[in-house]
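From the methods appendix. Each design record in this collection lists the tokenized structure first, followed by the designed amino acid sequence. Records were kept in a plain field format so they could be parsed without special tools. The example shown here is representative of the layout used throughout.

RECORD:
FOLD TOKENS (300 positions):
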């Protein structure tokens, strides 16, 4: 099965499409061709040349897949020209009737439709592996419109988490959004391994998460939270103060739901995490969505 994967060079978007592709590859034979739409003139020039009679450089697609607003129009146009079934991840900027399937996280606002699939959170490439004992990670987000990032509060949470579990070998990873002042403070301590985002890559994080036993994430990032859950680790959330100017905080609703489902622990409740429960139902949303996709598109 030929899949055209439209990419916009945004890591979060590419992780989502990769997560679905990895899951689909376990169900069907696929051949992936990536199309970079981060520089629109190049893509549209190729389409224009094809319409003028030049042969396109890729085999016709069975599926056209993408995440991010920059992929939506290229997917819709390519479907009209080359055929295939179109799938977009996250709520599209164009009418959803233009796509065969639209996969939307349940914390987003949406209007029910026959071609809409609701996912429990954001898809991603992380999958669980056997855990290395006494390993822990703390994943830090940063400035967000939904939460107040206060260095003192975040660092106090980190100190309590590490102090409560001194036998755990902790790694702290920041992100592009982490304030410089937080990064500076983290370099002064030595009871953990600090990884600056510029010194790591997505492969490192994927591999480390998959093998880590305990993971804490700050509450500002739904994608980090669902990556941690998909890893099979025991997951805690460092709860930040809500931004008073944020009227609708969909991430908080997600956190409340996951707490009620007993999938996460909040830092305001405890700084200790129980070991991962091997008997618990795995959080494998990628595979569930892939099965729905193949059924809806009648792929065997």
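DESIGN:
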């Amino acid at each position: 099965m030929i899949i055209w994967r439209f990419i916009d060079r945004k890591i979060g978007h590419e992780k989502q499409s990769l997560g679905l592709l990895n899951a689909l590859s376990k169900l069907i034979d696929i051949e992936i061709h990536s199309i970079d739409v981060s520089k629109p003139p190049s893509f549209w020039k190729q389409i224009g040349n094809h319409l003028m009679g030049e042969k396109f450089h890729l085999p016709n697609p069975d599926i056209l897949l993408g995440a991010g607003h920059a992929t939506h129009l290229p997917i819709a146009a390519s479907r009209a020209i080359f055929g295939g079934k179109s799938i977009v991840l996250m709520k599209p900027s164009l009418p959803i009737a233009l796509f065969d399937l639209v996969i939307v996280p349940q914390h987003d606002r949406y209007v029910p439709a026959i071609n809409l699939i609701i996912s429990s959170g954001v898809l991603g490439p992380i999958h669980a592996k056997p855990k290395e004992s006494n390993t822990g990670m703390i994943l830090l987000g940063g400035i967000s419109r939904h939460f107040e990032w206060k260095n003192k509060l975040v660092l106090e949470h980190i100190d309590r988490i590490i102090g409560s579990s001194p036998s755990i070998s902790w790694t702290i990873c920041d992100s592009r959004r982490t304030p410089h002042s937080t990064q500076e403070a983290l370099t002064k301590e030595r009871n953990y391994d600090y990884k600056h985002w510029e010194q790591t890559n997505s492969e490192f994080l994927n591999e480390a998460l998959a093998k880590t036993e305990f993971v804490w994430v700050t509450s500002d990032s739904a994608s980090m939270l669902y990556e941690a859950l998909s890893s099979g680790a025991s997951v805690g959330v460092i709860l930040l103060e809500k931004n008073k100017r944020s009227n609708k905080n969909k991430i908080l609703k997600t956190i409340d739901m996951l707490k009620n489902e007993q999938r996460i622990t909040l830092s305001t409740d405890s700084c200790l995490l129980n070991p991962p429960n091997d008997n618990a139902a795995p959080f494998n949303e990628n595979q569930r969505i892939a099965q729905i996709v193949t059924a809806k598109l009648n792929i065997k």
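APPENDIX NOTE: Residues 2-124+288-296 form a domain with the Rossmann fold fold (CATH 3.40.50).
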